[in-house]
Known about the structure:
The chain has five helices and no strands. By secondary structure, it is mainly α.
Amino acid sequence: MSIAELMRAIAAAIQAEGPAARYAQLALNTEALADMVSWANGAIDPETKLDDHLNTLQQQLHQLHDQAPDSALASLHDALGDLRNAIMRHDRDLKITGADDEDENN
């Protein structure tokens, strides 16, 4: 599952308000993507547009959780936070090492 597919699936689950098993599966998918972020060959979100979208999804999950607390919602919310952090760390590390510049020149 790509990040774009994940975001669409999360948005659909939020709109449908569940079920909890769907949130739990999406949390696992999100964690798997967060684990793979470091393998990306270049910056993932240099303009932070992706982070803005992920943050919006996270806020929507938080609102749903406030209305009806559910551990699956909380898990997905936290997994999105981990994914956001992994992407930011990856992109920051590329800037520090200059690796992204090297990819663009080759």
